[in-house]
Amino acid sequence: MLNIPVMRWGEPYESLEIDEVLHFATGEPIAKVSQANGGIIQRDMRKAQQARDTLRQFKISELIAMIAKAADLYENGTLPLGDGVQSPDDFVHQQSASTGLPEHMCRSNMGKNSFVLKNMDRILDCLTRGLDLDILTKGYGMESRGVMLSYQAQAPVLGAVLPSNSPGVHTLWLPVIPLQLGLVLKPGPQEPWTPYRMISAFIEAGIPRNVFSLYPGGPEAGAAVLSSCDRAMIFGGTATVEQYKGNHKVQAHGPGFSKILLGDDVVDDWEKYIDLMAESIYINSGRGCINCSGVWASRHTQEIAQALAEKLGPIEAKPPQDEEAGLAAFTISGMGKAVWNMIETDLKESGVTDMTSQYGDRLVEQERCSYLRPTIVHCKRPENAIAKKEYMYPFSTVVECPQDQMLSKIGPTLVCTAITDNQKWAQELSDATHIDRLNIGPIPTTRLNWLQPHEGSIIDFLFRSRAYQVPE
Amino acid sequence: MSVDSSSTADIAAKAAAARERLDQHAYEIVQWHFHESTGCPFWLQKKKELKFDPLTEVKNYDDIKKFPNFEDDWLREGSVRNWVPQAFADKPVYVFETGGTTGQPKRRIVIDDFRTDYEMFSETLPDEYFPRGANWLMLGPSGPRRLRLAVEHLCQHRGGICFCIDLDPRWVVKLIKTGQMDQLEAYKKHCTDQAITILESENNVQCMFATPKLLDSLADALEDKGSSIPQAGITGIFSGGTEFTPQWTRYCVEELFGGPPEKSGVYMTPTYGNTLMGLACSSPVTAADKYKISYYAPQPRAVTEVVSFDDSNEKVGVGETGRVKLTTLTKEFFVPGFLERDEGEREAACAMYPWDGVSGVRPYHEFASSTTVGVY
Fold first, then answer.
1. B299: Cβ contacts below 8 Å, ≥ 6 apart
2. Taking the model in full, what pTM does it have?
3. Fold exhibited by the domain B69-367
């Protein structure tokens, strides 16, 4: 069993507080993870500037080259981890063991992270809109069109309080090192694996270890990261996001409430889009904020819900090693049942129908974990309470709503796929400020173009554009 | 002030003597609280509902198990005067309240108990680090809590003067529950600012009480000013009030103080106390023992036992985990079998404290998720 220490600016620190990670299905001990207390984090942040100073000794292009090397190490290397080493297969097994994700999904998520690392030059080019990256290093510089530009880093490090649910979110912090800011990560309790492996790959690729801090720990550790870093991101539920509303130091990533909207001009052809809808709901076991949790249309909603239920309803829970496994387990005791209880309460409302009930019980309880099988719920009205819900498994409502009311009723939406050729409506969707990522046309909500900013541009968050003048 | 290396036989002999003293004390206290001339209205009324006569059927400590477990709500309802023993009816009475983290606070009456508790505690403090005559800083909860008066008395008892700050822990809990973390930080700063003003203006403050989080904040604030706990002249710290973990103690010793007492000159003693019990002392905490913290109640005035989660009359084995059960046995206040909101491991008697202790104290697992722990 691995012993994984806290990492304080690259230095291992074995805490007296240990969290034991067990395999969710077998109870097999996987690792002992040291837990950081809040005081340690606040204290360490006094030295945050050294991380940026260290990274600015390298050119951004050099860091990008190291990151590309790290991509290969992350995907294929056997890397140091705590008091042992970790092969890619170990990583997949360990991540699956604690998160409940099937192993093939863990493997596939490695590919996404690796892709982002390998393409960091293009990603930064897109995120900065083609800026000469030396301007970020120096803080100012002259563009070829003869205009002086200045971008000032707003913090020497980025702090991140990471979730346990979806390994894909790690792509959000990967550009930080080539932007010459240090990383201060508080891993999700069930998912310490990606941050540790990624940092290990970075260090093996030549990035100095003293620019990384990793603080597994409880809520106190998360609060300390957020309060002591001038720029930090957090992932959590609605209550968490609300708590940080208006706090310019914190970028809060909450539930996605991602949706597919079918325009009146295409809805009669709904069958053409069923596979796209199913993929958006089901892929990666519906765990991500980019998974669709609501399909909205003005008519045919009963048939759409029925067709989705036929496609997804029969899917069974399978062991994590099964290549066909499509569902992730709830590894926290009682969580699956608690989620199902909430859904059952909402199902009692008039106009709400569980279209998947005919395919057997949704809640599957096993000795040490539980599963929820895909659930499709039809709502006759947008006002039905369940139409505003999102859960961490393949769950979606199909909501009947006139097209001209959709924008005012869908609520905050991270990814919106609007299938329509109606240019006027498309313009209204483009103008809607409660939609973050917008796809006009038949694109699954889960297919991201990594060359686009995801959930807010990290450049805008970390750097301030300002005036900078020198005598002419 | 170290636990000596007494033999097992020595400890067993001391434990037997302590037990004999406890049995005698339990008998006397029950006689006192259930006699018409000395008892308080609450227990005299309760006596009528009991299926046994405490005056004839409680002969030793074990007989106290005949009482039903003490219910929290008895301390939340009715007139607090009901708790004043007849024998003390003419004495000045204090009311001390618990933090109120779970709604209506529990209240108890006190006449002199807090002074006695802290005078006993004073005997456990090493004079080298808690010099007699030194002034104290009290950086903890004020208002209707026992701590402010108790720490002030401790300080006065040792010949010093105590400087206090204002801290309302219930406001802290409200800020946390409503997610106003910026306000929480501001309030914490407000408290540490007051403390620094005292430390900067009064040069004989060598001892202090602080809750763990306020101690951390104070150290941070001092460091912002280019100083530190040792540089501010603090040599003795008595800390408690919230959950106190070995890791946190290690962090304090290694990083806030700069090493163990012999190196940094700063000695910290963790304590576990509450309004109902008084103050449980800790056996000395050392790096060699991985900063393990074991608490021992001020027996025979109060007894803590670690009992089974299923049967509160069943003590768990030494080293095993259970819920902390408290029995308070003073003439001012009698609390039989109060189940604390904490759990921990049962610790064996030691030479310094020859009775059961408890280590690893933390919120009872069934309550932990709903409890808000603030700066207090």
1. B18, B22, B353, B355
2. 0.88
3. Rossmann fold (3.40.50)
